[in-house]
Design brief:
Layout: H1 17-30, H2 35-39, H3 47-66, H4 68-73, H5 75-90, H6 98-121, H7 126-148, H8 150-153, H9 170-190, H10 196-212, H11 215-237, H12 239-262, H13 264-270, H14 280-293, H15 310-319, H16 329-366, H17 370-381, H18 394-407, H19 417-431
Length: about 450
C-alpha cells in the first residue's frame, strides 16, 4: 500500500535571536515606553530625544539591509509607503511649520520602512509571538513603575489614581496592552497546544488595561480576543458550526448598531461615557471648521498641534482645555493633509483589509488570525485616537506590517530533504511496473533451452 503524501510545510524558519532582539528594541521604542516620560516629560520634542532615536534608526537601517530580499517581495507595500511619504513631504510647501514637517516626514519614512520589514521578515505566528514577548516585558515594567515609582506609573493630577505604567497617559498603556493581548491570543490559536506564557500574558494585559479604566481599550480588547476566539472555534467546529457563528455575528452586529443609533445616550451611559464623549464632539466640530478653511491641503504634516500653532491655539481657546490631538485619526489627518491625504490613507487601509480577508482561510489560520482581528480593532481605535500616519506610533506600525503580510507571496513548501528523497523513491517503485513476460514471473514458467 502506498503511503499518503504529507501536506507541505509552509512555515518559514524564525529569524535568529539577535535579529528578534533588535526588532524588539525598535518595537518598544515605537510605543514611546519610558523614554518619552523620562526625556520629554512635557510631551514636547527635545534635542535629547532626537539623539536617543539615532541609534534606533541605525538598527532599522541594518535590519532592512539584512532582509532586503524579503522587502523586495512586498514591493506593493513599499510603493504605497512611498506615495504616503511623498504626499506628506509635499505638504512642507504649505505647512504652518515646515521645519517640523520635514523632520517628522523623515522619521515617518524610516519607521515606515521598519514596519514593512516587520511584516516581511516575521511570517506566520512569528510576528504575534514577538509582540507578545515585547508587550509582556513592558507589562511587567509597568507593574514595577506603578508600585516602585508611582509618581511616574500612576496619574497624579488629571485622571488621578489611574495607571499609566511606562507611558505619558493611561490611553497609551491601554492601546499597547490591547495589541499585546490580541497577539497572545493569536499565539494560542496558532499553536497545537496551550501556551502557558500566552495565557499569563493575556491575564496580565487584561488586568493592566482594566486599571486604566479606558472604555475604548476595554471594547477593543473584547472585540480582539473575541474575534480570535470565534475564528479559531469556527475552524475547529467545521462548516456547519462556522455558518451558525457567522449568522449569530451578523445578528449581534446589526442589533448593536440599531441600539446605538436609536438609543445613543443610553449606550454611552452604560459604557460610562457622557454624550459628548468626554468633550471629543466639541473638538471634532471645531476641527471640521478648520478643515473647511483648507480642505485640499491641510495645515501640513504633523504641524497643526505645535506649541506655536495659531490654529491649535484657536481650538484650545474654543474648547477651554489644552487639546493635545484631535482624538480621532481621520479628523487629525484632514487637518494635516486635507481630503487627498485622508483618501490616500483610506485606500492603503482598504488594500490591507482586502488582502487580509483573502489570506484568512489559510495564511490567517497559520498566524492565529492575528491580522484580521487587529485590523478590526485598529479601525475602531482610529475613531477615538490619532493613530493614522503617525511617525512613532505602534498601532500605525502594526497596520503597515499587516499590509506587507497582505501583499507578500506565500512561502515555498518546505520539506526535509531525506523525506523528499524517500518519497521520490517510493513513487518510482509504485509506478514502475515489472516485466509481464511469463518466464520472468516468480511462479511462472522458466525459460527452456532451444532444441534444434
Amino acid at each position: 500500500m502506498n503511503r499518503a503524501r504529507p501536506e507541505p510545510d509552509l512555515r518559514e524558519p524564525a529569524p535568529p535571536v539577535w535579529e528578534q532582539v533588535a526588532a524588539l528594541i525598535v518595537v518598544v521604542m515605537l510605543t514611546q515606553a519610558l523614554i518619552g516620560p523620562v526625556f520629554a516629560p512635557t510631551q514636547e520634542e527635545t534635542p535629547v530625544l532626537r539623539l536617543v532615536w539615532l541609534p534606533v534608526y541605525a538598527i532599522i537601517a541594518g535590519l532592512c539591509l539584512w532582509r532586503w530580499e524579503r522587502l523586495v517581495r512586498v514591493w506593493p507595500a513599499i510603493l504605497m509607503l512611498i506615495l504616503m511619504v511623498l504626499h506628506a513631504f509635499a505638504s512642507k510647501h504649505w505647512s504652518i511649520d515646515p521645519v517640523v514637517t520635514q523632520r517628522r516626514v523623515i522619521a515617518l519614512a524610516i519607521t515606515g520602512a521598519f514596519s514593512i520589514y516587520l511584516g516581511a521578515a516575521f511570517r506566520g505566528a512569528q510576528l504575534p509571538r514577538l509582540l507578545m514577548v515585547g508587550g509582556l516585558l513592558m507589562g511587567i515594567g509597568s507593574l514595577i513603575m506603578v508600585f516602585a515609582f508611582p509618581a511616574i506609573g500612576v496619574h497624579q493630577a488629571e485622571n488621578f489614581g489611574l495607571w499609566r505604567g511606562l507611558w505619558y497617559e493611561k490611553n497609551q498603556m491601554g492601546i499597547v496592552m490591547v495589541a499585546t493581548g490580541i497577539a497572545a491570543a493569536a499565539v494560542l490559536a496558532a499553536g497545537d497546544r496551550i501556551d502557558p506564557l500566552a495565557l499569563f500574558t493575556i491575564a496580565l494585559c487584561t488586568g493592566l488595561m482594566l486599571m486604566t479604566q479606558s472604555k475604548t481599550s476595554l471594547l477593543c480588547m473584547f472585540i480582539g480576543l473575541g474575534g480570535v476566539g470565534a475564528l479559531w472555534a469556527m475552524r475547529k467546529g467545521g462548516a456547519a458550526f462556522a455558518i451558525v457563528c457567522i449568522w449569530l455575528g451578523v445578528i449581534l452586529v446589526a442589533s448593536a448598531s440599531y441600539l446605538f443609533i436609536t438609543n445613543r445616550e443610553l449606550v454611552l451611559q452604560a459604557l460610562g461615557k457622557d454624550p459628548s464623549l468626554t468633550g471629543r464632539t466639541d473638538i471634532w466640530a471645531a476641527l471640521m471648521r478648520m478643515v473647511d478653511q483648507q480642505p485640499w491641503t491641510g495645515f501640513g504634516y504633523s504641524a497643526f498641534w505645535g506649541r506655536d500653532s495659531i490654529p491649535a491655539l484657536m481650538i484650545r481657546e474654543e474648547t477651554q482645555w489644552p487639546v493635545p490631538s484631535a482624538h480621532n485619526g481621520w479628523i487629525d489627518l484632514l487637518v494635516q493633509l486635507g481630503w487627498p491625504g485622508a483618501i490616500l490613507v483610506g485606500g492603503v487601509i482598504a488594500v490591507a483589509t482586502i488582502g487580509t480577508l483573502f489570506r484568512t482561510p489559510v495564511a490567517g489560520a497559520r498566524e492565529g488570525y492575528y491580522s484580521i482581528a487587529y485590523l478590526v480593532v485598529f479601525l475602531l481605535l482610529s475613531l477615538s485616537e490619532s493613530v493614522l500616519l503617525n511617525q512613532s506610533n505602534l498601532p500605525w506600525t502594526l497596520l503597515l506590517a499587516i499590509l506587507a503580510r497582505a501583499v507578500a507571496p506565500e512561502p515555498e513548501p518546505l520539506r526535509v530533504k531525506t523525506i523528499h528523497r524517500n518519497l521520490a523513491g517510493r513513487t518510482r517503485q509504485a509506478y514502475q511496473p515489472g516485466s509481464r513476460i511469463a518466464a520472468q514471473y516468480v511462479h511462472g514458467q522458466s525459460r527452456r533451452p532451444l532444441r534444434l
